[in-house]
Amino acid sequence: MKLYILASFLIFSSCSIAVAQESAPFSAADLGLNWEQTNLKDALVLTIKNNGKTPLPATGWKIYFNSRELKVLGADTLVADVKLVNGALFRLSPKQSFKSIAPGAAIKLHLTTEAMPNITERPQGFYLVWDQKPDQGTTIKNVVFQPFAAHLTLEQEVAAKAYEENKKIKDIPENKLPLVFPTPVQYVKGDGVFNLTADVRVVAIPAFANEAALLSAEIAGMLGEKTGAKTKPGAGEIVFLLDGKLGREAYNLSISPKKVTIAASTPAGAFYAIQSLKSMFPANAGAKVKKEINLPAAEIHDSPRFDFRGFMMDVGRNFQPKSEVLKVLDLMGLYKLNVFHFHLTEDEGWRLEIPGLPELTAVGGQRGHSVGEASQILPAYGSGPTPGLNSGTGFYTKADYIEILKYATARHIRVIPEIETPGHARAAIKAMDARYQRLIKAGDKEAAEYYLLRDLKDESKYRSVQGFDDNVINVALPSSYNFLEKVTNELIAMHQEANAPLTTIHFGGDEVPAGVWEKSPAAAQLAITHPAVKGTDELWFYFFSKLNKMLQSKSLYLSGWEEIGLRKQALNGEMKMLPEPRFFKENFHVDVWNNLHGNEDLAYKMANAGYKVVLTPVTNFYIDLTVNKSFEETGQNWGGYVDVDKLFYFIPYNYYQNVKEDEEGNPADPERYKNKARLTATGKSNIVGLQAPLWSENIKTPLQFEYMLLPKLLGLAERAWAKDPDWSREQNPEKGKLLYDQAWSEFVNVLGKKELPRLSYYAGGFNYRIPTPGLAVKDGQIAANLQLPGFIIRYTTDGSEPEASSKIYAVAIPFKAGAKFRVFDTTNRGGRSIQVN
């Protein structure tokens, strides 16, 4: 990274003003910060301007904010300093050469940072703290971020690439599209239609009464009255039958003009039949009350490919309200996803009430500025100085969690709670520190230490990937196990009260940095009493062995990220992560995310070795990653770019076969996968299922959450439920490509004409991402196309933003600089526009 030495300068007003904080206190409301990105990588200019009537003093204050790593450059290092506080919280302080800023004046500072690929990575969450009041922070609201002008050129490149990809998509008439999504095992079209009206009766055996009630409620919502409230001769009926020969989640759905029959061996199978029936409803059925709905006659025989069809929701980094969680469960139920991985704790937040440990939520569930973090943990992801104002603060009460569990169980969704250990645990550590201080002051040393998560005399030095130097639980302390068993017991009790299944708890295990526990007296003492436990690698095995035994004693198995089943070993002069043989037969379930350079075959290696593997590859299933290289798109890009196609074209048992892009978004090199491990028959039997995580570093509102979630999640739904598609089994590459292009066209037509219009209304409506248009400029013409047939492109040529009343694009138009194109869905909601320059 090049560092440019640029002199700072001050812009003064015409008159000199004596500055004194005491006589004329400066207000944070009068402070303006302008961040200008001066290249596409790492250069920034910060302008600090005084918009008020009182001078900003030369000393006595600091500005805090969250950011990637920042450094002041050249001569400006004499003017101001930027230091890491912890994590991603930084502090800008004036130095000796800093001069007071008079009203109307400004100072410019030149800085360098890590690469900033899009708006997601910009500095945020600014607040001012006076040295005389170090416990109080005031938000700086007047902050502007100006991206590098050349990002507009990048927009054109992204739009041009999209245009070429969209050219492969055929527009398929809606009446030629599959009627059920995700794709069923077998679908045979019949003759005639079933007329669904309020006169139709829903008849169910007692075993399926709950499922029948859910269906009746859905139909009543669309028709405006309860089904079968009045008996009418000749009215059809929906009948539920028990068929013990079917698999646990399988169903048969028969639709004739007179009757709809749902057969299943379990309530889960009956529930999935209902979802298939609902997918046959008109896409706009939820828009307004209808008198009747006609369902085409059909015979459907169906069952899922994988038993584990999972979505992970991260509420630790940024909190989402209970209402959004319930909405997500509705969505999962509709698309037959059955595992809700609930990421409840993180360095930046503990989100679940645990009876008997109030500090977990009172301290660990709140973010805000303080000295010592006795009442809240430090700000992160731009949450700012004041707790309770945004998604940095929040938690679910015990009653909330039980309600969520009941809601999920009614939709046949299993909830796996995740409690991050031993890393990513800063919120818990700080909360138990607060508990320790409270009980020490009360004179109860034994109780104070009972749940303590760190060795008070530990002098180990480390820095986590996220920048923390104090976020790892000390696994040598007996109190750490007291804490984890307490949390486990409370989770078991809540699941029992909700009558919700609990088969496993996910205990994280990822991203523990080098250096932990090396200078911990507790670890040194453990090595004396347990000679085999010497060094951090053996402490790792010791920790997960104890955790595993604790869970087994409660009839649970251990789940975690892949690291719980890995060990370090030197191979050919390099340190490699290899499957840990001592856990091969312990029924560890591992979510394998790392398929990046050097680890492309890690999931297959672990499955072949005996671990139960949930495929969670970052390059295909991390739906928090941005969709493309546009600077304006939200999401990270450290693991590549993930749009809905990445999930759709993933082949679980041979994912090398269809890799199209590498982590940088460039065409993949097939040679890279030539000597990678292949899945054995044993390994194949150990692939439990698929999971898509949505990490929330940059997701602060339900609208942002839904934008990143959809339509990507529908790619997962198809791949987790449907059998291997024909294109994935085709040996002839050219024929396989033709089959894929046809399947992809069919899939995006289903999304654009059926499923996304449905989701405009379902469960209150979802703020799914509307793709930007593809654009091509050639021979003096601008051509446009879209990813989702059924949506509409509108445009303007005067530089104004296209609205729902703007011209509809039909054919290429004469080139005009400043023309803007924007895609709209069936409700006239628009996506992000692209301007042609």
Properties at a glance:
alpha/beta; 837 residues; globular; eight-stranded parallel barrel; disordered N terminus; six-stranded mixed beta sheet
Overall morphology: globular
Sheet having the most strands: 8 strands, parallel, barrel
Mean pLDDT: 93
Give the low-confidence spans. Answer: 1-23
Number of strands: 36
Q: Measure the end-to-end span.
A: 30 Å
CA radius of gyration: 29 Å
Tally of helical runs: 19
Provide the β-strand percentage band: 15-25%
Structural class assignment: alpha/beta
Walk across the major sheet and give the strand order: 18-19-22-23-24-27-28-29
Helix content: 25-40%
Describe the structure.
This protein is α/β, with parallel strands linked by helices and 837 residues long. The strands form eight sheets. An eight-stranded parallel β-barrel has the order 18-19-22-23-24-27-28-29, surrounded by five helices. Strands 1, 2, 3, 5, 8 and 11 form a six-stranded mixed β-sheet that branches. A six-stranded mixed β-sheet has the order 12-17-15-16-14-13, with helices on one face. Helix 4 (322-334) packs parallel to helix 6 (398-410) and helix 6 crosses helix 9 (478-498). The longest helix has 27 residues, at 733-759. Mean pLDDT is 93; it is low at 1-23.
